[in-house]
Prior knowledge:
Blueprint: H1 11-14, H2 20-43, H3 49-54, H4 61-71, H5 75-88, H6 94-97, H7 99-117, H8 122-130, H9 134-167, H10 171-216, H11 222-243
Helix pairs in contact: 2-10, 4-10, 5-9, 5-11, 8-9, 9-10
Amino acid sequence: MGFPWYSTPWNAHLSTTNTNLDILVVVFYFLLVLGIGLWAILSSSRGTVEDFFLAGRNLAWWQIGAFLFASNIGTGHFMGLAGKGASSGIAVGAFEWNAPFILCILGWVFSPIYIKAGVVTTPRYLRKRFGGCRIQFLLAILYLFLYIVSKIAVEICTGAMFMKLVLGLDVYLATVVLLTVTGIYAITGGFAAVVYTDILHASVMVLGSVLLTACITPNKSKTSKNHCALLRTMMHIASTCLFEGRRIPPATESVHGC
């Protein structure tokens, strides 16, 4: 079973934009993430289940906030949601605008209940509330299945797409690299390693978004309009190939909004 975008000639459109510096930055970032993960493995305790899954309950509020922010954003947002927003309008991100309200409900309503009950997951709370192991087991299996199918698969697919564009790697090799780097620090370092690497991700995303917004804010000049159209076309290409299985449209295809 192949991917609809696997045989699409990406390099014909984007290879000229990649330089040795681009490749060096991506490789350096991967090594930096792996280094932070390994540092977290050596510096944090994983002697108990609580240490592994909850980082010993020693995390500050801003670390948890950065983790929630970074873990909710992935390549599916940059390659898919951003592309759809460029081609269809900003309304496609409406479900993300509701996230702050849901997180407030989680923090002010459900978290105190979980803390008082001494649980950290919904399946475990339902087991403690209603009794029996079957409801906990069934919900855990259901959550894992839905998350793997609807979330992780998309993130792996779009992450492999990005590595194929930037590094020219085979999509299956890129998938193996992504899973290997992530698995090394996540499985061996536990929640602490994930939080520390997500702090890096959050910092890069916020800083990069601010700089990118400042650099590509369109003005009346023809050059800025051309750059805006090019960026939107590239995001539209990625989202179209991934989610609709269509061929890449010509680079000169007009994109509304610029």
